[in-house]
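Much of our argument rests on the idea that a fold can be written as discrete symbols. In the encoding step, the backbone of a single protein was reduced to a row of integers, each denoting a local shape. This step matters because it turns folding into a mapping between discrete strings. For completeness, the protein is quoted in full, as a sequence line and a line of structure tokens:
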Amino acid sequence: MAFNSFLGVQVVAISVGLVSVAVGIGVPAFYESQIDNAAKRDNTQPCFPCDGSGAQRCRFCTGTGTVTVELGGDEKEVSRCINCDGAGSLTCTTCQGSGIQPRYLDRREFKDDD
């Protein structure tokens, strides 16, 4: 009886090992095919941060192009925003001004360590 249970444990262990190898090969192959299929399709999804405009409102002047500094009392100084150079907006850093949401792998920068 002990031999049969030992044999059963071996069969289960071998089966688990084979399934693990199959999954280890199958999952990367699946992802590779999905990436290839996605690369063949046109990317037309509007960029999320800029809503497809390619520009984002300047966070320092809140889109006005000027910054107001209260000097004290009733005195105020209004100057051109140095962050956006008075434009009130900046090129979207997510889509680089294209208005199209980049795919995940397109957003990553691959740097050579050499």
Notes: The chain has two domains: 1-40, 44-107. The beta strands are 55-57, 66-72, 75-80, 89-91.
